[in-house]
Amino acid sequence: MKRIAQISYHTSPVAALGGRVSGGMNVYVLELSRELARMGHEVDIFTRREGDTEPVQELGPRLRLVQVDAGPAQPVEKEDLPAHMGDFVRNAREFATREQHGYDIVHSHYWQSARAGVHLARGLGAPHVTMFHTLGEVKNRARISEHEPRSRIVHERNAARRADAIITASEHERTILTRHYGADETRMHTIPCGIDLELFHPRDRDTARATIGVAAGTPLLLWVGRLEKLKGVDILIQALAEVETPGASLLIVGGDAGAAGLKEELLQQAHDAGVADRVRFEGAVPHDRLPTYYAAADVCVVPSYYESFGLVAVESLACGTPVVASRVGGLISTVTDGVNGYLIPWRCPGPFAEKLDVLLNNAELRANFSRAGRRSVERFRWRNVAVAVSNLYDRIEVSRRADENEAAYDAFGKEALESALLAGGSA
Ligand code: UDP
Predict the structure, then answer these.
(1) Domain boundary assignment for the chain
(2) CA-to-CA distance for 77 and 223, rounded, in angstroms?
(3) pLDDT > 90: percent of the chain
(4) Which atom of ligand 1 is nearest to the CA of 228?
(5) What is the mean pLDDT of the chain?
(6) Quick check: CB of 226 below 6 Å from ligand 1?
(7) pLDDT per residue as tens digits for the range 175-192
(8) Candidates 3.20.20.10, 3.40.250.10, 3.40.5.60, 3.40.50.2000; CATH matching 205-379
(9) Which residues of 355-373 are buried (b: 16+ CB within 10 A; e: fewer)?
(10) Could you identify the atom of ligand 1 that is nearest to the CA of residue 283?
(11) Atom number, ligand 1, closest to the C-alpha of residue 255
């Protein structure tokens, strides 16, 4: 069993979900760590301290949250975070020294943590595994969000080239890393994300609707996520205006104060399109209450410009609700067109509206997709993910030891050669 340092520098894995920066990655870090700890590993999750809380919190047996002082103990804009990186790495190392133990693996998440991970792993003499979750190049190519700074791409490239291993959530992400970042194919390992199948399971639709206040007969579309432009909610609102099913309504789950500007824009768009009375903004909803929303909906829509994996689609399928999604990134491997939902190759409203009408008007088709959907996601159990990640940690340690032995052997060979020459022998 190993001592593992998970690095989540820019956002805490226990932060409320659905804000501008807290979503799939937070879920991933926490759930993976929980499962690794259940397997017997000792896991410390390092994050930047954001409030007046105890620096070290026990999250469960063998699982701790280590909040490291770096910059002000309050939320900091993403753009200002790199300035505190040095303090974070230094203080994290000091923590390890104070505790008098090292780590067998440093596993970082997202480019800012990957950057910290490079230095921390070197300082601790441990192998570095990284996972990007999103990539600056992909965001820039989607041309929809704010332009990602050049420095992000440079740090991503550096981490991609120096990490002992990179975990990608999908084959698509792997291709991007090879093509645009020059990552070494042999160091990349595709391990899909996981979901909690005990939490996300089919439930009674009428009860779910009564709980969240939606009338039984309403044709209901659902969107869930971090409210940011890359998620394509604008496409969905326009699609709703083109849907022909009478009374079709849209529930938008996610978004905190940080997303107020985008919410205003979307509200305005809904007004202009004449559908404002059929769009309800629910705000962020705690993760464990989401199954009720998935169960209440007829269809969950994921119109993102890009998703490296797309947990929301899988959660919805696990709850038996079909998904209509963009044909991008990880969604290609979780949504099977015509089996558990539809994949839309064009990121424009018309084709979305067309498939949404098909599903909203055909209860039998929805029921078929629902059964197939649940079956299709059984493979995404957290346990499976954690076992795959744990096996990868083992392999890296073994190959590192082999590299070290080789280096030691080379050094020995060189020494033997030099002493033979000194003694006047021939090599
Ligand atoms: N989420 C949540 N409450 C919300 C909005 C989102 O718990 O109000 C969770 C959602 O259940 C999912 C995650 O945030 O697990 C979003 O992950 P996804 O991979 O879909 O998107 P990402 O945030 O990685 O871009």
Answers:
(1) 3-191+382-407, 205-379
(2) 26
(3) 81
(4) 25
(5) 92
(6) yes
(7) 999 999 999 999 999 999
(8) 3.40.50.2000
(9) bbbebbeeeeebeebbebb
(10) 8
(11) 8
